[in-house]
Amino acid sequence: MIKGADIVKKVGLTSQILKTALAAAISWFLATTLLQDEYPFFAPLAAVLTVQVTVVDSLEKASHRLVGIIMGVMLSMLIGHWFNINTYSIFFVILVGMTLANALRMNPQIVSQVGVSSLLVLAFGHSHGYATGRITETVVGSVVAIAINALIVPRNAIPDVEQAILRLSEKSAATLTWLARILKEEVKSSHYGKRAVDDLVVQTEKCIQTLRLAEQSLKYNPFLVHKRTSLGRLAIGIRHLEHITVQLRGIRRGLADIKSVGPIREEFPQVEGVAAAMEATAACIPIFGKIVAAPSVELAEHLGSSIKSAMALQTSCLADLREVRSLMVLRDMGSILTDLSRILKEVER
Q1: Relative to the CA of 111, which of 147, 201, 254, 279 has its CA 20 to 30 Å away?
Q2: Residues 84 and 162 in one domain
Q3: Domain check: are 181 and 242 in the same one?
Q4: 54 lies in which domain range?
Q5: DSSP of 186-206, one letter per residue?
Q6: Which residue, among 121, 135, 125, has the nearest Cα to 42 in the 3D structure?
Q7: Structure confidence by residue, pLDDT tens digits, 299-315
Q8: Cα separations in angstroms, 109 against 62, 65, 76, 90, 168
Q9: Same domain, 201 and 312
Q10: How far from the centroid of its chain's Cα atoms is residue 304's Cα?
Q11: Does the pTM of the predicted model rise above 0.70?
């Protein structure tokens, strides 16, 4: 079964495409049956344009299309009493309709839909009931698309969030380890890890966007209500990882200030101890990410022992600071250790 699904995916067929085709076909059937219209093109067209990634997106798309259809129909029916369809009337009805929608600060999708529906109704709307029929067809197509999007293979974006959390936690740990290597002067960095931290910020934003998409996928979806508790737990974990990103940015700035003073080992020979504390703290972050994605007793115990080890190293570094004479080094090293302590508090919660 899995192999067959992979083959179907490789040829380009996805559940989204399948749902779109099904929504269009059902919309056509219902429109021809209920409305007794021989060619109800607006129904399948509305269905195709309404099926989106999430139910929320489908509702938004349907509302945009319906508002645009109504505005375009009203405008075309009004102008149609005065003009026959020709080059000038087409220019005038599209110009007026789209300008009016834009002046009302409507969504760009509504603006374009006003132009399309204005043209079609102007061209074919002279027959009795044509305009109201097109609105009804649009409603039918939109309702069918929303229903199919919610009921058939509803999108569950929670696994995407879990993977994003794992990637972000691993990236955070790698960034902190890289900063520790810069402190020990094992690697040279002209910007003291700025690029690595900037990449981490981008990764954090991607993780937050994935969370927002998952939240949208659960709205108005009765089959995924039970997933909301899990998503709430993941959201809390992402918030902690976001705070860790802030602390890592502070550590990078402190590292840059320390390096600007000069050779750090002359003022603080115990720099290896701080780097070890950074590495031990970094080791806690991926474990935290795994716990957020898939909690387990074993991982919780592992995290607890890792936090104790990191905390012991941080405490030892604080004791070493008593021997520092340079106030600038004392300030910057103290700042780094403070940020490390805050990272442990984030993963400990």
Answers
A1: 147
A2: no
A3: yes
A4: 2-151
A5: SS--TTTTHHHHHHHHHHHHH
A6: 135
A7: 999 999 999 999 999 98
A8: 10, 7, 18, 20, 35
A9: yes
A10: 31
A11: no
Q: Are 322 and 242 found together in one domain?
A: yes
| Together in a domain, 267 and 287 | yes
Give me the number of domains the chain comprises: 2
- Asked which of 124, 151, 178 is the last residue of a domain, the reply is 151
Mutual orientation of helices 158-183 and 271-293 as an angle, nearest 10°? 180
Classify residue 147 as exposed, middle or buried by CB count within 10 Å of its CB (0-12, 13-18, 19+). middle
Q: What confidence category does residue 316 fall into, taking pLDDT thresholds of 50, 70 and 90?
A: confident
Q: Give the Cβ contact number of residue 285 at 10 Å.
A: 29
For residues 313 and 297, membership in a common domain is answered with yes
Do 145 and 165 have their domain in common? Answer: no
Tokens standing for residue 304:
């607890």
pLDDT at 38: 66
Task: Give the integer Cα–Cα distance in Å for 240 and 282.
Answer: 14
Distance separating alpha carbons of residues 74 and 85, to the nearest angstrom: 16
CB contact at 8 A, 111 and 98: yes
Q: How high does pLDDT run on average in the chain?
A: 81
* Position 42 confidence tier, pLDDT thresholds 50, 70, 90: confident
pLDDT bracket for residue 48 (50, 70, 90): confident
Q: Round to whole Å and give the CA distance between 50 and 148.
A: 11
- What SS3 class is residue 20? helix
Residues 86 and 227 placed together within one structural domain of the fold: no
Give the 3-state secondary structure of residue 127.
coil
Residues 146-170 have pLDDT tens digits of: 888 777 766 677 888 999 999 999 9
Share of the chain above pLDDT 70, in %: 81
